[in-house]
Write a structure and sequence with these properties.
1 helix
Length: 429
């Protein structure tokens, strides 16, 4: 994420858009959200329908990690709240002071939309998760995750009583497809305390938490994704977990940092194959040849493999073999005992136009010499999208943004912000 200056706490969110005021143009980074209302690093984005099927369009929501300091006492308390919505002109808080950020700004976080009672009368709800979150409501306090009920934030299940609940990702998944089970909300965790009775991957269904598998994955889970391994074939969708774990009780020990949940047990993905990735911290599904004969592949942002020496970077699994697409420095890191996920997003620059969707990566491969922090993988080659924000653009304007040496892109997503409107999808970071 980019800050306005080395000392300012404000965050400038940039977008990559293929159209400006309805006119076609070369995609470039634009300071679309320069209202100055966010005061912490953005950790996650989501789209949420606040009027549950009413006439209003879905709204962009951001989770910010805000750490109060003595130098920002003049900041409006409403702007310090962790979950903010974009009105079209400015950011405003979602809910009231019952949800607050009480941890350091370095923690990770996630947002998800989930219907807690499936076909019941409750509308889908917005869930926010981060180690820094604290909910105070109905005379009690809980930590780590909260649900927005349409008016205020409330506890999820009985709530976690520990202030060290670290949830890194959220994913909705229907384990039995057309079967009788309702979809569940899965939470990827980083060593949750045993006192809360939970571990590294949790399932929320019917307002109750449970573990996944006969024994949980044995280390942090960084990312979750739903994947259909055989596309249009007969196999149902599966839940993919990526992280620091090397096995669960359902699979033999070994360097398997990816696992597939088939609804009954964990299965390793591509284990033992040449070029297997190391600790896997980011996931994406991408079709490298668009409408060509290739099928959608599983892309992984991985650290160095300590077993066979496969270097960190971007790798893909086509169901039979691993392919390494380049070393990407700083794509994935372990910093202060916390996981920095490799951020990726599939984005279509021109919507219905001739340009195929591409995979955008929060990092630049070593084969490209540039100060940029974002690169574009077309399925066959690398490029850097847009101008270098550290240098003047064609009009001589230099955006007031800088990358510090320790800056990480923490949120990366592609959304159609105007729904049925004329604009194409927008890439946000």
């Amino acid at each position: 994420m980019r800050s306005l200056s080395a000392s300012a706490g404000s965050i400038l969110t940039l977008v990559l858009s293929a159209s400006i005021h309805g006119q076609s143009c070369v995609p470039d980074w634009l300071p679309t959200f320069e209202s100055g209302d966010l005061h912490g690093p953005v950790r996650a984005f989501a789209l949420f329908d606040f009027d549950a099927g009413g006439p209003n369009p879905t709204t962009l929501v951001a989770l910010q990690a805000y750490a109060s300091t003595t130098s920002d006492l003049d900041v409006d308390p409403a702007n310090r709240r962790p979950v903010q919505r974009w009105t079209g002109r400015r950011w405003e808080p979602v809910g009231g002071p019952e949800l607050e950020s009480v941890g350091a700004a370095t923690v990770r976080g996630a947002l998800a939309v989930y219907d807690p009672d499936a076909e019941g009368p409750l509308p889908p709800a917005l869930y926010a998760a981060s180690r820094s979150l604290r909910v105070t409501r109905d005379g009690r306090t809980s930590y780590g995750i909260a649900r927005f009920d349409g008016a205020a934030w409330t506890h999820v299940s009985m709530g976690f009583t520990s202030g060290h609940v670290s949830i890194l990702d959220l994913q909705v998944f229907d384990e039995d497809g057309p079967g009788p089970l309702a979809p569940a909300l899965f939470a990827a965790c980083d060593h949750l305390p045993a006192a809360d009775g939970v571990h590294n991957l949790l399932r929320l269904r019917d307002d109750a938490w449970s573990t996944v598998g006969s024994t949980p994955l044995n280390a942090a889970v960084a990312n979750l994704m739903v994947w259909d391994p055989d596309g249009a074939g007969s196999m149902p969708e599966r839940l993919i977990a990526a992280g620091l774990f090397d096995h669960s009780a359902d699979s033999p020990p070994g360097p398997s940092y990816l696992a597939l949940w088939n609804g009954a047990q964990w299965e390793p993905i591509g284990a033992g194959q040449p070029g297997q990735p190391g600790p896997a911290l980011g996931l994406a599904l991408f079709d490298p040849d668009g409408n060509g004969p290739a099928t959608q592949e599983l892309y992984v942002a991985a650290a160095d493999n300590p077993i066979d020496g496969t270097p960190r970077g971007l790798l893909s699994w086509n169901g039979q073999q691993w392919t390494h697409h380049g070393v990407v420095p700083e794509f994935v890191e372990f910093e202060g005992g916390q996981v920095n996920r490799g951020r990726m997003a599939v984005h279509d620059d021109d919507g219905p136009g001739p340009i195929r969707p591409a995979l955008y990566v929060a990092g630049v491969p070593s084969v490209i010499s540039t100060s940029a922090r974002v690169s574009r993988w077309s399925g066959s080659d690398w490029s850097v999208p847009g101008h270098d924000p550290l240098a003047p653009n064609q009009s001589g304007h230099r955006y007031p943004v800088v990358f510090s040496s320790g800056t990480k892109i923490e949120a990366f997503a592609s959304f159609d912000l105007d729904g049925q409107g004329p604009s194409t999808a927008t890439l946000l970071m």
